[in-house]
Automatic annotation (TrEMBL):
Keywords: Oxidoreductase. The keyword Oxidoreductase applies. Residues 6-183 form the 3-hydroxyacyl-CoA dehydrogenase NAD binding domain. This is 3-hydroxybutyryl-CoA dehydrogenase.
């Protein structure tokens, strides 16, 4: 399958990064969100990233302009009618995603592949909301997308082999390393990472140590580049909570119970770096 036009849905931290790497690889990209100001915010993040690359001498001004010119803003899902591949990166919520995939299934041509950047939600269930389950696949990028090499590719129960192969080759064209996994809650990355983050939060909740101490121990003791609570703030505490809930519901085991402190922070609007406050204060 030949992919030329890519539509990215959701212009937040992941969607803007995905749009950037697609445009850098030469694809023509439509970046879509619910409101024009959200899309412009995403394009602003991309411009800032590209400016930094120009300053560091990795890109020249004309290349930057060429990359930006390949990105078009959208607030209408009807624009899916031109896409060969749609990559969804909206909030980690099954109802929102299935609603969206139902609509995409209506607007996108029959050949279009519908991919989700979900961190943990079952691809098979998202696929079942469409009439093309064989063309639905998980394409899980890591944050920050322009920097991180991995794309975890998740095969839904009915994902066709040629769809998998197309997404594998697109990932390589984006200069990423694809790794194949099957569809189980949290896939591999978050099945392993998120219980560790949740345990770090429990350690703070139970008064065993401060967030700074927990992070310092995991950095210096385990050689992690970033402590689990700094990482949680970076991922977004709302996203962490959604992922823990998905693991808890999917496996039914108490070991995946989200820490009450995580729930409390999310209820308070402390979502981590993106909201200015999480386990740390970002002074916004
Ligand atoms: P975010 O909160 O930064 O961005 C989400 C964007 O989606 C917002 O701009 C919002 O306006 C938009 N949106 C929400 N509902 C929409 C709809 N119905 N139609 C169009 N746009 C809509 O979230 P983030 O961090 O970018 O996460 C997005 C997805 O990527 C989630 O599924 C998350 O689990 C996944 N993910 C997140 C990672 C992270 O480190 N934050 C890493 C890998 C995957």
């Amino acid at each position: 399958m030949s992919i030329q036009n890519i539509m990215v849905i959701g212009a937040g931290q992941m969607g803007s990064g995905i749009a950037q790497v697609c445009a850098q690889a030469g694809y023509s990209v439509v970046l879509h969100d619910m409101q024009e100001e959200f899309v412009q915010k995403g394009i602003g993040i991309i411009s800032k990233n590209l400016n930094r690359s120009v300053e560091k001498g990795r890109l020249d001004e004309s290349e930057k302009e060429a990359i930006l010119s390949r990105i078009t803003a959208s607030v209408s899902l009807e624009n899916a009618s031109n896409a060969d591949l749609v990559i969804e990166a909206v909030v980690e919520n099954m109802d929102v995603k299935t609603q969206l995939f139902k609509m995409l299934d209506q607007y996108a041509p029959a050949h279009t592949i519908l991919a989700s950047n979900t961190s943990s939600l079952p691809i098979t269930e998202i696929a079942a909301a469409t009439n093309r389950p064989e063309k639905v696949i998980g394409m899980h990028f890591m944050n920050p997308v322009p920097v991180m090499k991995l794309v975890e590719i998740i095969r839904g129960l009915q994902t066709a082999d040629d769809v998998y192969e197309t997404i594998e080759s697109v990932s390589k064209k984006l200069q990423k390393v694809p790794v194949e996994v099957n569809d189980f809650p949290g896939f591999i990355s978050n099945r392993i990472l998120m219980p560790m983050i949740n345990e770090a939060i429990f350690s703070v909740y139970e008064g065993v140590a401060t967030p700074e101490a927990v992070d310092e121990i995991m950095k210096l003791g385990m050689n992690h580049p970033m402590g689990p609570l700094t990482l949680a703030d970076f991922i977004g505490l709302d996203t962490c909570l959604y992922i823990m809930e998905t693991l808890h519901e999917g496996f039914g085991d108490d070991k995946y119970r989200p820490c009450p402190l995580l729930r409390k922070y999310v209820k308070a609007g402390w979502l981590g770096k993106k909201s200015g406050r999480g386990f740390y204060n970002y002074g916004v």
